[in-house]
Amino acid sequence: MPTPISTSTLTPASTATPTQLGTAAPSSWTDVAHPIWPLLLFSCALANVTALWVAPYLPFTDLPQHAAAIATLRHWSDPQWKAREYFTLALGSSQYLLYYLAGALLAFPLGNAERANLVLLSATALALPYALRSLLRAIRADDRLALFAAPLFWSQPLLIGFFNYLAALPLLLWGLSLVVRDAEDPRPRRTALVAAVAVALFYLHLSAFLLFAPAAFLASVVLGRRPRALLWMAPAAVLGLVFLATSPVVHPDAVGWTQPTRILFEPLGQALQNLPSALLDIWPGSEDELVLLALIGAAAVLAWPQTRDPEATSRLRGLAAGWCTLAALLYFAFPVAIGWLWQLNERYAIALALLAPLLLRPARGLRGAVPLLLVAAASLFSAGVAARQIRGFSREVGGFDRVLGVAAPGRRLLSLVYDHDSAWAKFSPYLHFGSYYRARKGGIASFSFAELPQSPLRYRPETAPPPKPPHWEWEPWRFRNDVDGRYYDYLLVRGFTDPFAGAGSGPTWHVLARSGGWMLYGK
Length: 523
Known about the structure:
Layout: H1 18-21, H2 36-52, H3 63-74, H4 83-86, E1 87-89, H5 97-110, H6 113-138, H7 156-160, H8 163-184, H9 188-202, H10 206-223, H11 233-246, E2 263-264, H12 268-279, H13 287-303, H14 314-333, E3 337-338, E4 341-342, H15 347-355, H16 366-397, H17 400-405, E5 412-417, H18 435-441, E6 444-446, E7 457-459, H19 484-487, E8 490-494, E9 510-515, E10 518-522
Parallel strand pairs: 5-6, 5-8
Antiparallel strand pairs: 1-7, 2-3, 3-4, 8-10, 9-10
Helix pairs in contact: 2-6, 2-16, 3-5, 3-6, 3-18, 5-6, 6-8, 8-9, 8-10, 9-11, 10-14, 13-16, 14-15
């Protein structure tokens, strides 16, 4: 007798994949299951990673600061580095902890903090489109839409150097895919994994966590059938309460911040005007605007009214719309600045752009495939533009390595950047270049994020640099030879400006090395 088949194991024909039906993969390249689409996704992700490795210097403003923090943690017990002489650990008051700890661990086998930081960036570039694909599959959408994530990697958070937030975005998307699956079919191990993702996001970047927590709660409420689907919130809720009790944002004076913590909002019209620059407008020229127009055009064609297959479930589409609405509200209504933290709302522009493809439903055939090919072409083009800009920037950096190489390790260096702009990137990539000294040789390199309350590393009061007003790194003319000159061993200057003109009396400095616009002074 034939073996009976349970009806519970059958997959509806409208949602079954070719593999589930036991048939061969579709022969047409326009079909969802054709192997050309995974190949295109991998090619776009790989192109982004490749662009990061084409030259030794990346024009991302905060990158040297991140490398310096990773290096200090990596060399915490190195006497030549003098990390313990100058810094204390403030691990409990930082929401940037996970990125730096991962970088410090990678720096052991990889040899240095700069390479570890580059590997973390590469992992982020690779993970971003695949995390979106996981979320698309969870809501039973067309996973070819993951192609939209690849060009969105080259965004304002990357240019400014918000690496902690950028690294949190793939985890956020993947975490939401887990939430959807766990809400529909709760399993203890998966619920525990969602809880771990929430904790990891909490210690990667608070901005990402503030989007994930309500988005995941919404999914659990809309789709959940058992109370256990909400258990993931417990560890993150405890951490949130502890952070509110000890937060450097709520209690800045407790960690040495003496300036008022003002809260500023961006007017609606200004937020609308800044939306393109908050997304992809990061390079001089019009290429990145063309990429943005291509993405918008492709999305418009995909959204155009046309015949489509029936939806698997409207609840999932409604949930995706709710997530997009939440991200939009955070962009338009969240403060632009809270004390020393700035551009807070603009970070949600890229999150909104990553979630928006969830609302699209490509039609069958050429009408659905051609716009997606346009997205893939735009992604490869954006990676090529980025590679060109990175190579140009590295050439512009010039003899920086030779100048910095003269400095001895474990000393105190003050960076005075009079010329912080570049012909290759739109946001001041040289502002924190002095931190490469600490990333490579330890000691102190000021300005440093250690002067800010959210840093996991804080200066020891007895060996800390002379105090400066907020944002002094933008104002190198505040250098005082009679105060700063007595503390620091080196001055690293970029720009053809005499730093001692009007700086007051103090130690006598000598030029140790110069190349192009770089100059190193020593006493």
